[in-house]
Design goal:
By secondary structure, this protein is mainly alpha-helical. The chain has one domain. 53% of the residues lie in helices and 7% in strands. The strands form 4 sheets. It has a two-stranded parallel sheet. Strands 2-3 form a two-stranded antiparallel ribbon. It has a two-stranded antiparallel sheet with strand order 5-8. Strand 2 and strand 3 form a beta hairpin. The longest helix has 25 residues.
Length: 309
C-alpha cells in the first residue's frame, strides 16, 4: 500500500479557558447541530402555520433525546460485552461524552418527537417531517466534529485522497476520510429534501413524505459508506458492520413511509388543511365557540403579512 496521504493533525481543543475547562471543536460542532437545526425547524414551523417558539422549545427536548439516545445506543450497540462485564460503565461519564452512536441518537430523537408532538398536540407525522431538515444538517456537523477529533476513522486505503491521522495512528496509516464522506452525505440529503419539497408543492406535500425520503436516502448512504469505515465492534471477518445491520431496518422504514405518504396523501399541516392562511399562526389551545356550538381555532396573524382573506 502506498504511503501517500494528506495529513490531518489538528488539536481537538480549540483553546483552554481555565483548569479543566476547554473549548473543543467537537463542542462547536454540537453548537452548530442545535443552532442551525433550530433555524431550519423554525422555518418549517412558520411556513406551515405554527409558532416559531415551538421550534425553540423542541430544541431543549432534542438535546436530551440526542445525548441520552446516542450515549446508551453506543454502549448497547457497540460495547455490549463491556457493559455486561462492568455494568457501571453504562453510566460512567468520567471521560465526558466519549462514544456516541448516531443510530442511538436516531432512536432517542424518534421517542422525543413522539412525546413532544403528543404534548403540544401536533400530528406526529408533521413533526417528523419538519424536523428532518435539522437531522440532515446535524449529520454534517457531527461528522465534522468526528473529523476534528480524529475518530470514527475509515479503513486503510491507497486512494489518492487518503488521509493520515497521527492523533489516531502511530505511525500514521493512509485511510479513507469517511468522516468527510458522511458530512457530504448530510449536505447532499439536505439538497434532496429541498428538491423533493419543491416538486411536491411545499406545504401541499403529503405528510410523512419528507421523513420517508430522509430515512431512505440517509440510511442507504450510511449502509454504503460503512464499506469504507473501520469495524467498530464486529470482527473484520463479519460480512457486514454493526452500522450496516442497524441501517437496514431504518432504510426499510423510510421506504414504507414514502409508500404510505403517497397512498394516503394526508395534508402536511395547518396551512395545507385550510385552518389558517399562509402567514398566520395556528394556535389549537385558543378556541372559541361559534353560534353552531362547534369549537374552532383562532389564527394569530403575522404582523408582516396581509390580512386574512
Amino acid at each position: 500500500m502506498s504511503a501517500a496521504c494528506w495529513t490531518w493533525n489538528v488539536d481537538p481543543v480549540l483553546f483552554d479557558i481555565i483548569g479543566p475547562l476547554k473549548i473543543r471543536w467537537y463542542g462547536l460542532a454540537f453548537l452548530g447541530v442545535f443552532s442551525v437545526g433550530y433555524l431550519l425547524l423554525a422555518w418549517q414551523m412558520q411556513r406551515g402555520g405554527r409558532d416559531r417558539e415551538v421550534a425553540a422549545t423542541f430544541v431543549n427536548w432534542a438535546v436530551g433525546g440526542v445525548i441520552i439516545g446516542s450515549w446508551f445506543g453506543h454502549r448497547f450497540f457497540y460495547e455490549w460485552e463491556r457493559v455486561l462485564s462492568d455494568p457501571i460503565y453504562l453510566i460512567d461519564i468520567r471521560k465526558g461524552l466519549a462514544g456516541l452512536s448516531s443510530h442511538g441518537a436516531t432512536v432517542g430523537l424518534i421517542v422525543t418527537i413522539i412525546l413532544f408532538a403528543r404534548r403540544y398536540r401536533i400530528p406526529i407525522g408533521e413533526m417528523f417531517d419538519r424536523f428532518m431538515w435539522s437531522c440532515a444538517s446535524g449529520a454534517f456537523f457531527v461528522r465534522m466534529g468526528n473529523f476534528f477529533n480524529s475518530e470514527i476513522v475509515g479503513r486503510p486505503s491507497d486512494v489518492s485522497w487518503a488521509v493520515c491521522l497521527p492523533r489516531h495512528d502511530n505511525p500514521p496509516i493512509p485511510r479513507h476520510p469517511t468522516q468527510l464522506y458522511e458530512a457530504s452525505i448530510g449536505l447532499g440529503i439536505l439538497l434532496i429534501l429541498l428538491l423533493v419539497d419543491r416538486i411536491a408543492g411545499k406545504e401541499k406535500r403529503p405528510r410523512w413524505l419528507i421523513t420517508g425520503v430522509f430515512f431512505t436516502t440517509y440510511f442507504i448512504c450510511r449502509f454504503g459508506v460503512e464499506f469504507f469505515k473501520a469495524h467498530q465492534t464486529l470482527q473484520s471477518t463479519s460480512t457486514l458492520t454493526m452500522g450496516q445491520y442497524l441501517s437496514i431496518p431504518f432504510a426499510l422504514f423510510g421506504l414504507g413511509l414514502v409508500a404510505y405518504a403517497l397512498k394516503t396523501q394526508q395534508p402536511s399541516g395547518p396551512v395545507a388543511m385550510g385552518l389558517v392562511n399562509p402567514g398566520e399562526i395556528y394556535e389549537p389551545e385558543k378556541v372559541k365557540t361559534p353560534q353552531g356550538g362547534k369549537k374552532g381555532p383562532i389564527p394569530k396573524k403575522n404582523k408582516k403579512k396581509g390580512k386574512r382573506k
